[in-house]
Amino acid sequence: xxxxxxxxxxxxxxxxxxxxxxxxAAAKLIEQSGCRVEVPSAQACCxxxxxxxxxxxxxxxxxxxxxxxxxxxxxxxxxxxSCGGMIAKHYPELFADDPAWRPRADALAAKTHxxxxxxxxxRGMTTVEGRLEAVCTYHDxxxxxxxxxxxxxxxxxxxxxxxxxLRELDxxxxxxGFGGAFCVKYPDISNAMVAxxxxxxxxxxxxxxxAGDLGCLMxxxxxxxxxxxAIRAWHVAxxxxxxxxxxxxxxxxxxxxxxxxx
Length: 262
Description:
Number of domains: 2
CATH architecture of the largest domain: 3-Layer(aba) Sandwich
Strand order of the largest sheet: 2-1-3-4
């Protein structure tokens, strides 16, 4: 009998610092898919902030540390399309002209997956044990949808959550305005975008909004809170895994300026 694949969980900075329950939920789901989970102690940021800001030197230095810490595993899985996309899509670009590191970046990229895509597309998961009495809507984050091709997978698994009804947004694929450093550099534009997103969420009649990227959820939850809305926000992994955690609160969505959120 073959040994279970070993998955290295890339926890992400936001999950580690703001929402550890997402990491525990991800580990639980990966184990339910038949894999062993390890969390490399040497992991750090994926390097995306530096990369997006044009600081390739810092991004390369961080990426080398990630590659060294994660390349020895069968798979790398992140509960974030943003961080997953950085490793899977942009690490090879970072080392395009480096004959020593390009092969290592390519190899890591090839086995790096966003959590829901890994569970459904790689491990063939079709049902989960989660239960939530709620009317939910789902926001497709930009990186998950466009870089990691995650769209049908979370919806497929949510269908098996007992008690959950799913109502689609009019524009589930439209950006929430977070965009990492974007919301800091352009707070007024970011606030207008997240206001459009919360209005779309409200018109569904849902009492809960779900997504697969914590940055988006923190931005949306912060805006909902400032609007006085009772709509709750959870990471989809928490719901699928049945991990008991309070809704993402305004305290987990720090404001950079009045009316905007990181």
